[in-house]
Design goal:
Structural class: mainly alpha
Largest sheet: 3 strands, antiparallel
Oligomer: single chain
Order of helices and strands: HHEEEEEHEEEHHHHHHH
Helix content: 55-70%
Strand order of the largest sheet: 4-3-8
Number of helices: 10
Shape: globular
Number of strands: 8
Amino acid sequence: MKTKVLKSISYFIFPLFVLLFFSINNAFSETNDAGTQPNKKEKFNAGKMIIEHVVDNHEWHIAEVGETVIYIPLPVILIDNGKLVVFSSSRFHHGEESYNGYKLDAEGKIDKGKYSGKIVKLKEGTESEVASVPLDFSITKNVLSIFISCLLLYLIFISIARRYKKRGLVPRGFLQSSLEFILLFIRDEVARPIIGEKKYEKYLPFLLTVFFFIFFTNLLGLIPFMPGGANVTGNIAVTMVLAIFTFVITTFSAKRSYWKHIVNTPGVPWWLKLPVPLMPIVEALGVFTKPFVLAVRLFANITAGHIIILGFMALIFIFGQFSVGAGYGISVVSVIFGVFMSLIELLIAFIQALIFTLLSALYFSMAIEEHHEEEHVH
């Protein structure tokens, strides 16, 4: 049973990764590659620093030593007018220069409301018109972090499944024991009681995949250095894809009684159904708002946690601009609160993964539940 479930988890990882990859770089992209020149000294901007750490990026910033910026340039992959264009993001020099007609965030030249933060190609000889907006399939910071998370999930669960197969069902070692505890918790406290004894196994692989993916990416996001530091679940594209998976499974699993209760909700006065179908409209909207709220809840909570921690760290540099003593003085308070918030974030990393999994199981249960009309004996 354990080996079968662990292998089933890996089957969900690949399609999950594919949809996440394409969604980040196209429909819901939040990339922000406009940076500052390392050699140019300017006043510390806390808001800009926080935003640059929270949103996605075409390069993975590691550290700054003096005026030297240590970073990993990531590949830019574009499809422009049917042609494949590939080059390194280092060509942009932190967003300060254009390369081969491509530019990051052309401020003041292009309608910023439509093209801000996106890679656009300008016509030759003029910078006032947009020639084309290529499809962006670049390996951004969040995409690379998803690669790392999926690789870790594969290695960990496949190796544990092999251990169960060779050594039996008794867990050995801290990692195997910890993951089995979580696995059994999701099975016995979430999937089985909510979905039901007869049908929970059908949805268990997906629920475990979603839980561990969110949990692993949340933990990696708390690590301040590579391969951590990416705000994956703080990207609305990622959480929306996860919610779409839940929505699709709920829709295709729904029984006739589920749709019947949406169209003709029992126990509701007739004047809320006719002549204006008020309740059916509300119930139909609820079908789409549930996954939307599911995505926004995870996105908002994870992003808020990162912003709070970065805000405490920014206080050190803000007060340090007035005097060195003030910077050192506030650093003690900022570090203490930063460490406290990091510990809270460890708890939130687990709680948010659990809430997303629990609500997904609840939606599945609502879709497959057999509704029976109550019979009143008078």
